[in-house]
Amino acid sequence: MQGNFEIKQQNLKTRQRLIRAVRRFFDAHGFDEVETPALQIMPGAEVHVQAFETMLINPHQDRAETRYLHTSPEFAMKKLLAAGWERLYQICHVFRNAEGSPWHSPEFTMIEWYRAHAGYRDIMADCVDLLRAVATACDITEYRYQDMSADPFVDWEIISVAEAFERYAGIELIAYLPQNVPVDGFREILQQKNLHTAPDDTWDDLFMRVMGTLIEPRLGQGRPTIVYDYPVSLAALARPKPEDARFAERFELYVCGVELANAFGELTDAAEQRRRMEADMGLKESLYGKAWPIDEAFLAALERGMPESGGIALGIDRLVMLACGASDIKAVLWEA
């Protein structure tokens, strides 16, 4: 028991150093730290994420209103971008119900940052610099998980999703995009690779099965990996690529096989954002029997004009785990 206590104590000291280093990094790069409300009308945009629900009681009115603990501060921060703020970051607790694993906690710490008049490649550069700054501050030369390691100081692997499918799964993704073949054609390819499929799998379900089974475990080994340009159906808040609208300006960062961050070249078209939200909430209703209301204030902010921007969400707890070489998120949380 004493040994476990000492290990956790050291992990938490690393956590303190890491968060201080993150703040120094963004403060030095001219970002404003913000604190937006955790209670929201629409807690996020994710179809498969569940939120914590509560009631907001107005003492001056004979009614209560439903609110949700945010699954991300994204909408609130983008409203600030639309209001004229240009570089923002926020380190905050976010809440996702029905989650729990060595890499998931229903309450966890996230950093999100946004750059106005920038794109997702600017955010990629931020990631490289941030992970190197954190490693230096924590006196580590590599991030670790189980028997894997990743050196942030060497050149990173930066590949497109299509390249990752070809390299790690042996699948020519472009040939099997939903615009090109029926979903049954994609399903046959997975069956040939002995992956589980179900008759009601959507194209997105099959895509994620390939990612989770054949690709993600091989990413970020030896060095961090950025995988960019996801099919547009898998990027609800990212803008389509101007040169190829089948794909969206989205990337994910992987370290030691672990997804650490998710980033977008942000969608600023209010009408397209409404269409996507309504479609996603319709799917959420059909799958789970309940959907979230649309955040009309967010859509109004887009209509007023949000500049071209890049943004990202990065899991602080997971970054601490990788800095400590911990195998369970509970080993880096402030709980006895």
Question: How would you characterize this protein structure?
Answer:
By secondary structure, this protein is an alpha+beta fold. It has a domain at 2-153 and 290-332: BirA Bifunctional Protein, domain 2 (2-Layer Sandwich). The strands form 3 sheets. Strands 1, 5, 6, 9, 10, 11, 12, 13 and 14 form a 9-stranded mixed β-sheet that branches. The protein has a 3-stranded antiparallel β-sheet with strand order 2-4-3, with no helix packed on it. It has a two-stranded antiparallel ribbon with strand order 7-8. It has helices spanning 2-28, 74-82, 120-137, 161-169, 183-192, 203-215, 270-288, 296-305, 316-324; strands spanning 32-33, 39-40, 53-57, 64-69, 87-95, 107-116, 143-145, 148-150, 157-160, 225-231, 240-241, 244-255, 258-265, 309-315. The radius of gyration is 20 Å and the shape is globular.
Describe the secondary structure blueprint for this structure.
Elements: H1 2-28, E1 32-33, E2 39-40, E3 53-57, E4 64-69, H2 74-82, E5 87-95, E6 107-116, H3 120-137, E7 143-145, E8 148-150, E9 157-160, H4 161-169, H5 183-192, H6 203-215, E10 225-231, E11 240-241, E12 244-255, E13 258-265, H7 270-288, H8 296-305, E14 309-315, H9 316-324
Parallel strand pairs: 1-5, 9-10
Antiparallel strand pairs: 2-4, 3-4, 5-6, 6-14, 7-8, 10-12, 11-12, 12-13, 13-14
Helix pairs in contact: 1-3, 1-9, 2-8, 4-6, 7-8
